[in-house]
Every structure is written in structure tokens, then in C-alpha cells.
Design brief:
By secondary structure, this protein is of the alpha+beta class. Helix content is 31%, strand content 22%. A four-stranded mixed β-sheet has the order 1-8-9-10. A four-stranded mixed β-sheet has the order 6-3-2-11, covered by helices on one side. A hairpin with a 2-residue loop joins strand 4 and strand 5. Helix 1 packs across helix 3, helix 5 crosses helix 6 and helix 8 packs across helix 10. The longest helix is centred in the first third of the chain and has 19 residues. It is flat and about 70 Å long.
């Protein structure tokens, strides 16, 4: 039996966190290749440190898009200059114009190269063989009714805090705030429902001095941050003990971003998903095109789980999918409603597989994933977001609800 009374904590990191800078650049590369060729293959990793980035990985475009020999030809649709330009644009949009990490002056090393032929022959469709998964692995999706986004409340609130601070930083309303930040939210649950916030941690990079030249301290930053945190946590309230509201606990956070700590693509997988409230298969998302099931199948699993909860068939739902490289169908589909389900889980699994083709190709086509929609996913979570008109966050739609309700009308 799961616990009903407990406390649970999740963290988020901002778009300016070193790892998230790398996720953003890797996903910008994915978008550039998909814009040139919707069938592009990309596996891109970025490393960042003081005024330096290395972009590495393997890519493939068709000959028309890039030329006959390699994906990075001098005169191709995608070349080294374009990759460098989009990386600098991403850093500028995040807001880094600091001595130790500046969008203009950072050195960029490009080590992208062509995709392995061994991988290509396993993934590509040929003859009677359908397109296979781009790798083996297990992927999890989760949804619950704790928030309107059908996400676990601690991670959703942690994301919302940082998103609110980023908005006022970008708008110029709070010029003292700088890009690198973290948040952490602890909630108390009673009978399995979040009822109160017991602790909040916000660490945000900030200017060394205010407009008058006075050195800024953690108390100054706490006063700036407080109203935004209070607004996000309105439904559960702030901690009763103000000593449990921690802002920049070390007292100072001026040097940040890749200048303060190195970053790497794919190191914030729990931040990207459910904040530890649900299982995780271990594969990162950013920098991967949608033939990689680490990404696309995790999106599909979330899509299915969210629709189950939205249809009122369960209050919580975990879905696991598994794949083998080069194989065109899932090896297993597991559904667990954690004791909150209104219908038989085996029957639910069967109905879900009838509604959505869970082959790699089926997922990409159903969710329309072969589009440049990924840079926006690189911060503030891949889930719990609002679907956009251009197809972004299509896995957050609840368009399966009518069919699910119809299938279980008689329960």
C-alpha cells in the first residue's frame, strides 16, 4: 500500500543553469536539422564551461538537404557557421552577457559528424521491414490529478517559480536577477493529496550590486523573490515557519552559469520529467530526434497516462514502454493506476494500444513529432506544458478522452 500521509520534494532548474544551457543548444541543433529535413537523424551533446562550448554527436540529412558526402558540408543547408550562429543565439536569448560566459565571445568547438551506418541500417525502413527504434530502453509516462496540468504538484510548482522569475528577468522588471537559478518545493500530503508547503528553496544568480552601488545580500534577493513564490504557492500556502523559506542559503550567488560550473546535455532528467514522483527509464531527451525512443516513447507514455487521468479512469497512472534497437514494435506495454483505477488495467492497456500505434513510426506520426519544436522543451519541464498551434507539446493533448470514455462507458 502506498503511503497516504507524507512529505515530498522536487526541484527545478532555470534555462540559465549550465546543464540547461547545453540542453537548449542541443535541441536548437535538432530543430535546425528537422527544419532542413523532417527525416533528419540527430544525436547531439553539448558541453559548456567558462567561455567555451563543445557541440558533438552524429547527424544525417538526405543528399538534397546537405550534399552527397556529409551532413556538415561547407555549402550545405546546415554548416558549421549556422551551428555556431544558432548556439550563440540560444545563449543570447537565455541572457548570458557576462565576462565568463558571453554569447559573443564564447569559443565554440563543433564536433558533429555523420551517423553510423550500423545504426542507420537498424533504424531505417527497408523492404518489408518497418522503421525500427533508434535504441533499446525503457520509457515511463505519468499523470496524476494533483494540478490542472495533471502533474505532481511539487515539480509543477518548482517549475512555475522559476518560470515566473525568468519572465520578470527577461521583461526587465527585475534587472538584478541573472539567468542561473534553482528551486525546490516540499509539500505535505494528507490522504495522498498535497495540502501545505513545508519548505521552499530558491537559489538565483544576481547582480553584485544594486543601482546605487550597494552590495546585495541574500535578504535583498529574498525580498525580490518572495511575491513571485507566494503567487505560485497560493493554493498550498507558504511555509508556516519563514525560516523554511530559503533564498540563496550560501549568502551570495553572483558567479553562475557555465562560468560557475560546467554543463552537459541530459543531466537533468528528473527535472525534465516528474520530479522523482514517478519512475524514470534513464534516457535523456534533449539533443535527440524523434526516432530515438528515449524521447518519443517517453512523450507517448505521458500522452497515454495523461489521457487516462483526464478521462477520469484513474487519479494516477504510470505507463512503461520498452523497445529494442531496430525493432518496430514495443516489447512491452505496462499500465499501473496505483490503486486509483476505475477500470481493469489489462483491458486499459489493450484499449490504449488500439487507440495509438506505439511503433516508433506510429508515435512520430500520431504526435507529429518530425518538426522543429524542441528548443522550447529544454527548460521548465517537457511535461505539464500547453500544446501550441504549431504542434509543440502535442503529447500534452487530451484528445483521446472521448474514445477512452466511450470504450469504458459500461466500465
Amino acid at each position: 500500500m502506498p503511503l497516504s500521509d507524507y512529505v515530498f520534494t522536487s526541484e527545478s532548474v532555470s534555462e540559465g543553469h549550465p546543464d540547461k544551457v547545453c540542453d537548449r543548444i542541443s535541441d536548437a541543433v535538432v530543430d535546425a536539422f528537422l527544419a532542413a529535413d523532417p527525416q533528419a537523424r540527430v544525436a547531439c551533446e553539448t558541453l559548456a564551461t567558462t567561455n567555451f562550448m563543445c557541440i558533438a554527436g552524429e547527424v544525417r540529412l538526405n543528399k538534397k538537404a546537405c550534399g552527397p558526402r556529409a551532413p556538415m558540408l561547407k555549402n550545405g543547408a546546415i554548416n558549421k557557421k549556422k551551428i555556431e550562429t544558432l548556439a550563440r543565439a540560444a545563449i543570447k536569448e537565455i541572457g548570458y552577457e557576462q565576462k565568463g560566459f558571453h554569447w559573443k565571445t564564447a569559443k565554440i568547438l563543433n564536433k558533429l559528424h555523420g551517423q553510423s551506418a550500423d545504426i542507420a541500417q537498424g533504424v531505417d525502413a527497408s523492404g518489408n521491414k518497418d522503421e525500427g527504434a533508434g535504441d533499446q530502453g525503457i520509457m515511463f509516462g505519468y499523470a496524476c490529478d494533483e494540478t490542472p496540468e495533471l502533474m505532481p504538484a511539487p515539480i509543477q510548482y518548482a517549475h512555475n517559480i522559476l518560470h515566473a522569475l525568468a519572465d520578470v528577468r527577461h521583461s526587465g522588471k527585475e534587472p538584478i536577477l541573472l539567468p542561473d537559478a534553482k528551486s525546490q518545493v516540499t509539500l505535505r500530503y494528507v490522504h495522498g493529496r498535497p495540502v501545505a508547503c513545508t519548505a521552499v528553496v530558491v537559489s538565483t544568480q544576481h547582480a553584485a550590486k544594486d543601482k546605487k552601488g550597494r552590495e546585495l545580500e541574500s535578504g535583498d534577493i529574498k525580498a525580490i523573490v518572495r511575491p513571485y513564490v507566494e503567487k505560485v504557492l497560493k493554493s498550498v500556502g507558504m511555509p508556516e515557519d519563514d525560516n523554511q523559506f530559503y533564498v540563496n542559503p550560501t549568502g551570495r550567488f553572483v558567479i553562475g552559469g557555465p562560468d560557475g560550473d560546467s554543463g552537459l546535455t541530459g543531466r537533468k532528467i528528473i527535472v525534465d520529467t516528474y520530479g522523482g514522483a514517478a519512475p524514470h527509464g534513464g534516457g535523456a531527451f534533449s539533443g535527440k530526434d524523434p526516432t530515438k525512443v528515449d524521447r518519443s516513447a517517453a512523450y507517448a507514455a505521458r500522452y497515454l497516462a495523461k489521457n487516462v487521468v483526464a478521462a477520469g479512469l484513474a487519479r494516477r497512472c504510470v505507463i512503461q514502454l520498452s523497445y529494442a534497437i531496430g525493432v518496430s514494435h514495443p516489447l512491452s506495454v505496462y499500465v499501473d493506476t496505483q490503486g486509483t483505477g476505475e477500470v481493469d488495467e489489462q483491458r486499459l492497456s489493450k484499449v490504449l494500444q488500439e487507440l495509438v500505434n506505439l511503433s516508433p513510426r506510429g508515435i512520430r506520426e500520431h504526435l507529429n513529432l518530425n518538426r522543429p519544436i524542441y528548443a522550447r522543451t529544454s527548460a521548465y519541464g517537457h511535461f505539464g506544458r500547453t500544446p501550441t498551434k504549431d504542434g509543440g507539446f502535442s503529447w500534452e493533448k487530451t484528445d483521446l478522452v472521448p474514445a477512452l470514455k466511450s470504450a469504458f462507458n459500461g466500465r
